[in-house]
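DM between two lab members

TW: hey, do you still have the Putative formamidopyrimidine-DNA glycosylase-like protein entry open?
JB: yeah, one sec
JB: this one, 279 aa:
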Amino acid sequence: MPESPEVQALAEFLSARAVGRRIAALDVVLPKIVKAGAPAEAAGGLIDAVERRGKMLDIGVSSASGPAHLIVHWGHDGWLLWHDVVPEGTRRTGEATLLARVRLDDGSGFDLTDDGPWKALTLSAVSDPSDVPAVAALGPDPTAPGFTRQDVAAAVSGRRKQLKALLQDQKAFAGIGNAYSDEILHAARLSPVVHASTLGAEEIDRLFDSARTVLADAVTARRGSRPEALKDDKRADMRVHRRPGEACPVCGDTIAEMTFSGAAAHYCPTCQTGGARPD
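TW: and the structure you got?
JB:
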């Protein structure tokens, strides 16, 4: 699933190309993706803003009926395909399944796609972003200027949840997913399975610093990338995520994989778990 740095890059990419354009047509190819409102009714509206909310994209549209927000939740395998010239009709382009196509008044536009088996991307049309439950429930965003150490301390306080899982909990930290949770924990030298409530003051400091730095660096690195390049750029920058069997870039130990609760964590035993490895 795209995480905050990639969605931020998508928001900036669309802001530069779509803001100030009218939606000539919005065709929903797979109706089940619509979770609220009637997105097709945004046709004729003017796109006046594109923002990121956690891992979701918020496309602001103004029309005669008033302002609206098209909220895209990517699910696990959703993505965006940009067209300088939108193909006629709603024929598929590329390997992913076409879910919806947005045509702009200058002939450009974009597709919402999903290449996963469940087609979990969703699209909501609402008058206020907080009308989407996933937006309303978002916790503090580590990339926001106002994010503080106290936000981290509050998130871990009393929580017996494993630290990697807590980092991915959007009610605790907005925008972090599977990949960047691995990267943040590696930078912070913290085990992915330690209970959050056990962290001491110095460990909270490291977690705060790492979350801010890892995500800020990734946002900067993705800036200016086109949507089709973002996934590969993200993978290339990972230091431990999806690199089991490779050497840790810090200490040289072999990166390990640990599976728990149906998920996988990639980590350095020397840097993060005092040498402990999975059985």
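TW: got it. DSSP finds eight helices and eleven strands in the chain. The radius of gyration is 20 Å.
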